[in-house]
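note to self — DONT lose this again. spent like an hour looking for the file last time. sequence + predicted structure for the chain T wanted, 186 res
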Amino acid sequence: MTFETIETARLQLRELYPTDKAALLEFVQQPEQLRWMSIDFPDQASVDSFLADAHDENPFAERKNFLLAACLAETGEFLGCVALEREGDKSYAAELGYFFLERHWGKGYAKEASQALLDFGFGPLGLHRIWGKCHVQNQASAGVMSGIGMLLEGTMREHFWQRDHYRSSHLFAMIKSDWEALRPKV
């Protein structure tokens, strides 16, 4: 089985392509767009490395990470990236992540894409737990995760160095039974 593009009402979540480099370079030119993120693109080489790491030819069941481009379904315009990254050797848990170009903030794309990744993770991937973290000052990201039904489990205090400070993060999570309870009854 191979990964197939995920479609939502407005979005297409697909593999990252080398042609996405031009859009990703916008983060190099305007790094403040990633101010809350643990990811950083200081130069073109970091974008090249990111794109190389995103490409995974492992069979679906053996694939550890799904790092995907989020694009408008109608036009194919690149909006940002979303990810499900499995924890170490654990095949039952993954971290949810996302970052979007600032001009696309506030339009519900992160929430729509994240919901699709929950459905993908708990559905075809068969995960038991999906979690995400956000900088304690990133209220928009906390709103995305709580808005898709993830529960705030706590705050990780100053758990890693981020550019110029020790970062504290809110930890959100959902387990499969939570996801099943939120699904529409057929």
